[in-house]
């Protein structure tokens, strides 16, 4: 398994497009190619027939905005795998449905409604090398989560719970590079003594790109949105009910 991270709309939206490749067959998915102009250099070099599907994590324009152009020009008539609300979608996998990519990659579609109701995360496992990764769109960010545009804290808690049940060595590929600002908020909630969070802060000082460098196991240590029983989170929110804490954390982050 190989993942190429392609930054788009850098310093304004900090979006990522990803190419997930099965190395044995060289077949790839292109995930969230919202701004084709920003990834033109890569697309010109790539053998077009190796891209077998356009895939979206959710319908927002900064994830699905390239569907129409790409499926009518460069990647004519290839399937668009996404939730029901994405433009031009041709296939919506059901929750936990497994889709084969090339010879060795099995991708499980995990429905994670809240940021949008059509949010789907894609958990990819290479059967041969045992590599694992998950494309989390705007549901899970490194040390953060997406805004609750179409859902509530209860839904986000359930959706993040599904992702946290994945193997701890699963690498996280989020929809945006928001880590630096997330760390500032997480420090304000989890305090200065969280070692994993301090390590993440130091990583951000030295590295502009953090996607693909951290795992589900790391999130459990440094992401306040999945540490709803952490004494520091209880103290910062002044609440004890996990759903109420989730809603309050999101409001605190929105106003941070
Ligand atoms: Zn979004």
Automatic annotation (TrEMBL):
<keyword id="KW-0862">Zinc</keyword>
<dbReference type="InterPro" id="IPR036866">
    <property type="entry name" value="RibonucZ/Hydroxyglut_hydro"/>
</dbReference>
<keyword id="KW-0378">Hydrolase</keyword>
<keyword id="KW-0479">Metal-binding</keyword>
<dbReference type="GO" id="GO:0046872">
    <property type="term" value="F:metal ion binding"/>
</dbReference>
<dbReference type="Pfam" id="PF16123">
    <property type="entry name" value="HAGH_C"/>
</dbReference>
<dbReference type="GO" id="GO:0019243">
    <property type="term" value="P:methylglyoxal catabolic process to D-lactate via S-lactoyl-glutathione"/>
</dbReference>
<dbReference type="InterPro" id="IPR035680">
    <property type="entry name" value="Clx_II_MBL"/>
</dbReference>
<comment type="pathway">
    <text>Secondary metabolite metabolism; methylglyoxal degradation; (R)-lactate from methylglyoxal: step 2/2.</text>
</comment>
<protein>
    <recommendedName>
        <fullName>hydroxyacylglutathione hydrolase</fullName>
        <ecNumber>3.1.2.6</ecNumber>
    </recommendedName>
</protein>
<dbReference type="Pfam" id="PF00753">
    <property type="entry name" value="Lactamase_B"/>
</dbReference>
<comment type="similarity">
    <text>Belongs to the metallo-beta-lactamase superfamily. Glyoxalase II family.</text>
</comment>
<dbReference type="InterPro" id="IPR017782">
    <property type="entry name" value="Hydroxyacylglutathione_Hdrlase"/>
</dbReference>
<feature type="domain" description="Metallo-beta-lactamase">
    <location>
        <begin position="14"/>
        <end position="176"/>
    </location>
</feature>
<dbReference type="InterPro" id="IPR032282">
    <property type="entry name" value="HAGH_C"/>
</dbReference>
<dbReference type="InterPro" id="IPR001279">
    <property type="entry name" value="Metallo-B-lactamas"/>
</dbReference>
<dbReference type="GO" id="GO:0004416">
    <property type="term" value="F:hydroxyacylglutathione hydrolase activity"/>
</dbReference>
């Amino acid at each position: 398994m190989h993942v190429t991270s392609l930054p788009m709309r850098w310093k304004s939206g900090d979006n990522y497009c990803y190419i997930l490749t099965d190395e044995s067959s060289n077949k790839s998915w292109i995930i969230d190619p919202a701004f084709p102009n920003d990834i033109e250099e890569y697309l010109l070099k790539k053998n077009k027939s190796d891209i077998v599907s356009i895939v979206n994590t959710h319908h927002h324009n900064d994830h699905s905005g390239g569907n129409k152009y790409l499926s009518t020009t460069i990647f004519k008539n290839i399937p668009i795998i996404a939730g029901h609300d994405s433009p031009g979608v041709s296939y919506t996998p059901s929750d936990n449905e497994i889709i084969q990519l090339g010879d060795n990659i099995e991708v499980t579609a995990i429905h994670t409604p809240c940021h949008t109701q059509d949010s789907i995360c894609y958990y990819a496992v290479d059967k041969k090398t045992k590599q694992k990764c998950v494309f989390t769109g705007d549901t899970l960010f490194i040390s953060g989560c997406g805004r609750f545009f179409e859902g509530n804290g209860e839904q986000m808690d359930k959706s993040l719970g599904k992702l946290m049940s994945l193997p701890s060595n699963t690498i996280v590929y989020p929809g945006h590079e928001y880590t630096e600002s997330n760390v500032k908020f997480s420090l304000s909630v989890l305090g200065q003594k969280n070692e994993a969070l301090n390590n993440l802060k130091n990583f951000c000082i030295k590295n502009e790109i953090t996607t693909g460098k951290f795992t589900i196991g790391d999130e459990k240590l440094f992401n306040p949105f999945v540490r709803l029983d952490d004494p520091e989170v209880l103290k910062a929110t002044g609440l004890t009910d996990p759903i109420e804490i989730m809603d309050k954390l999101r409001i605190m982050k929105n106003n941070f």
